[in-house]
Design a protein that fits this description.
By secondary structure, the chain is mostly helical. Helices cover 81% and strands 0% of the residues.
């Protein structure tokens, strides 16, 4: 492939990295448990769109700003952390009555999950730095098609990641149906997912 070297090594490494649990993985599982399969798929697609944004930023050199500016990195990091804390707090303090279970499901609409997936991914500067550090390693230094090579590598990584995220969404959604049939347990999972999102937000806020 023009401008790319060791493509199969990149593909293998990318798949292994996608299989490693991270913030995006936990977010998709959480959204699938609270909103069902459609919300989980939407969240996975939103994260893919966010990753596309990071790929474009890396190809255009914008990610260098986050790598070289402490202020820019901190601002983006704190915005992402606050957003995750907001989502977690909403779930943690949602109504606990069994009658509220159906309302909680409808609240996590596919459209909302899609947008949340985009924002949680885009507002994580560590993802931006990952794309900036990982993709260029497989681009030929003297190639005249470096930008196209970066975009191709990014598209490959996003595709394999999306496929894995869809598997996670399907698996978690099967559990969601069980919780819908058991409202009291559904309240418990809402609280657990809310605490998970808050934990992710705190971890992002204190990351360096």
């Amino acid at each position: 492939m023009s401008g790319i070297h060791d493509y199969w090594l990149f593909l293998l490494t990318g798949v292994l990295l996608n299989l490693t649990p991270g913030q995006d993985t936990l977010f998709i599982i959480g959204r699938s448990l609270t909103g069902g399969l459609r919300a989980g798929i939407a969240a996975a697609c939103g994260i893919a769109v966010g990753s596309l944004g990071h790929t474009l930023a890396a190809a255009l050199g914008l990610s260098l700003l986050l790598a070289t500016s402490l202020v820019a990195f901190t601002v983006v990091k704190l915005l992402g952390a606050l957003y995750l804390l907001y989502l977690g707090t909403r779930l943690l303090f949602a109504r606990s009555a069994p009658a509220a279970a159906a309302a909680a499901v409808s609240a996590a609409t596919p459209r909302a999950a899609f947008l949340q997936g985009i924002f949680t991914n885009l507002l994580n500067p560590k993802v931006a730095l990952f794309f900036l550090a990982f993709l260029p390693q497989f681009v030929a230094v003297h190639s005249e098609a470096r930008t196209l090579a970066l975009l191709s590598l990014g598209a490959t990584f996003i595709t394999t990641g999306l496929l894995w995220c869809l598997v996670l969404a399907f698996a978690a959604a099967r559990l969601q149906q069980f919780f819908v049939r058991n409202p009291n347990l559904r309240t418990l999972i809402d609280r657990a997912v809310g605490a998970l999102f808050i934990g992710l937000g705190v971890r992002l806020a204190v990351s360096r």
